[in-house]
Amino acid sequence: MPLLIVLLIIGVVLFFAYLFLLAWVLILIVGVAFLPLTTAAIVGAYVMAASMPLVYLAKIKDSVDGPKALPSKVKRGEVLGEGPRGEMYGHGWDKAWPTYFPHQAKTDFHIVVARMWRISLTFLTWPWRVIASVWNRADGLIRWLWWVPIIVAMVPLLAIPFTIFSVLLIVLSCVFMGVLYLVMAAIALVSRGVGMAYGFLDRSKRKRESRALQCTSTSCYRTTLVPGFRCPGCGQVHRLLVPGPLGIFSRICECGMKLPTTASRASKREFTVVCPYCDVELGVTAGSRPTVLVPVIGPVGAGKTTFFASAVQGMAELASARGGSFEAGNSVAGQFLQLVSSGGMMPKTAVGRPEVMAFEARTDGEIHDLQLVDAAGEHFVNWDSSQQLTYIDSASAWVLIVDPLMFSEVRARLEEEGVRIDATLIGSGDMRDAYASVVDRYKASAGSLRGKSLAVVLSKADVLARVPEWESLGSPESVRELLLQHGGRNLLTGAELDFSKIQYFAVESRTREGIDPRRDPVAVIDWALSKKPVRMQFLDADVKNASEEAPHSTATMNAEG
Hints:
Blueprint: H1 2-62, H2 71-75, H3 100-135, H4 140-208, E1 213-214, E2 223-224, E3 228-230, E4 237-238, E5 250-252, E6 258-260, H5 263-268, E7 273-274, E8 291-297, H6 304-321, E9 325-328, H7 331-342, E10 356-363, E11 366-373, E12 397-402, H8 408-416, H9 431-444, E13 453-458, H10 461-464, H11 476-485, H12 489-498, E14 502-506, H13 522-530, H14 554-560
Parallel strand pairs: 8-11, 8-12, 12-13, 13-14
Antiparallel strand pairs: 1-2, 3-4, 3-7, 5-6, 9-10, 10-11
């Protein structure tokens, strides 16, 4: 019995000694190792939270694996939405890689957030799982005498620092990921602003320089400051080559070809131009030069084709005399130029959608594209018959060809002077209807005549010049006066109410050798050129008609009458 008591006392003493030593070990661990380990956990959490998201983003960005904002997905509307705003909405987005910020970055960001969350949870649970496995290694007295001290040491040395590390990693990751998200959003907003400004400046410059693309296809006639371009790598058409979600200063085509994001830079690289509306190929110079469209209006037989023939011949001669050139830019213009050069009789203009005659003019170091459009007089009958003449809408200057022989007062005056007009073709139809057919259609389509200019061109002036008082016909005042006094008052009343900028011309239909400089058709072309911010003229200032506008009101005409 005393021996049992002694052994019990010794056991109790040893147990308390064990607890005392274990307590001192814990105190020693806490005093020596816990603080550095905790500090290391805090610093490690900060460093990892700040660097790991960036490392993951870089790896994901350069990786070919994972969800990518592919050009095919862009085209299907899965990345940027169904299509761009505006007229190109129906065509959808071009097949190109979107800008990394924010489109691909958002996807990568979500992947990084998921990875950081998994890592934080792994660090949080790992030490406790280790401790649990240690606890389950044995049972009974061995667990308490051997494994419990180890577990007790692992809690401050392993579990608590890792827990602090994991909790801080979660908190700091949220903070740094939030900052990173704000930075990405700021980059995206700044890029968008820079892109909008860059695109606006390029379009504004092209507008100032009259470098708009005017489609010559008879199925289109559309005008745009943003032409489409064919990728030289794969031939794919990029209809909306502008700074935006597919690139700010450059974009990457689906094939990997790097393309500029402005029409000006694409034109300098001589990319093939494609109309973004109808997909018709227009060569490499379309829209890259100042372009002026000159449409004519007038009834059948008014002299529209003859006017253009004389003007084209004159421009070719004048450009050559200045050391330049005047050449056809498409097949239609080539055929017309060949017909004019042959000196043959100009045929009747075919009825159908008018074809645009594109010419390349070089004078005094300037290169311009001049587009002349001659429509059959049958189109100028009424509002319905002019529906196909939408090309006129984009022209800043309209040319109304007036046949004076259609007015009975003019014919009567010619008869008084014995001037025979048997061989001269007289226009048919009604001049006012021809004028109204275009103006009324344009107004009905919500078009505004503000900023538009009108040239009233009196054709066949060489016939009129046989009358003594009309021999010097040519100045704007003399042309207007003739029309007012000899049948054109109603026409001029409507025109001068519609247009604030009107100029009057008289032109001859004879060959260039005998033409009177006061009645040169080229003067009308020069006037049309002056309505655009271009630096090209064919005639010298001393042989041209006065270029000042001659607006008149109805009250003025009544007073004159």
